[in-house]
Amino acid sequence: MHRDSAIREIGDLKGRRFAFGDRRSTIGRYLAQRYLFRHGIRAGDLAGYAYLGRHDKVGWAVALGLFDAGALKEGTFAKLVHQGAPLRELASFPNVTKPWVAAAHVSEARFALLRESLLALGPERFLPGDDRDFDFVRKAIEESAAFSGD
């Protein structure tokens, strides 16, 4: 949200305009809508909302006062603030990491070699993953429908 906004807590978003990222964005839509939904905010509670595509567009739209608040990646937020955008954080939520995946035709031996090579770089760079690690994203997609009333 804008640095000078009177909004102090999630409930203050009722009756306000909210900017989301891409319609298929994990952070810019699904996780943000899940967060709003779980804090009692539905699409109908907002004065309006829009999908702006990229996270930087969301940040600048909020900084310019076109929207009261918006959802964007933490890295993009930090970059925009560093560039002078008058933004401040209202809330944050856990995010999924960016998985590295292999095509189904990659042999088990090659997959194991690649996996071990990446994990050898250390846990600050790569961690082992499992499909269940993304269950919360699937749940967020379901709750997105509840947010919008679909």
Please give a structural write-up.
- With 150 residues, the protein is mostly helical.
- It contains five helices and three strands; from the N terminus they run βαβαβααα.
- Helix 1 links the parallel strand 1 and strand 2.
- The longest helix is centred in the last third of the chain and has 14 residues.
- The radius of gyration is 18 Å and the shape is globular.
- The two termini are 27 Å apart.
- The mean pLDDT is 92.
Residue-averaged pLDDT: 92
CATH fold type of the domain at 10-93 and 132-148: D-Maltodextrin-Binding Protein, domain 2
| Assembly state (oligomeric) | single chain
Ends distance = 27 Å
Query: Numbering strands along the chain, what is their spatial order in the largest sheet?
Result: 2-1-3
User: What structural class do you assign from the helix and strand content?
Assistant: mainly alpha
Topology, please?
Blueprint: E1 17-20, H1 26-38, E2 48-51, H2 55-63, E3 69-70, H3 74-82, H4 108-119, H5 135-148
Parallel strand pairs: 1-2, 1-3
Helix pairs in contact: 1-5
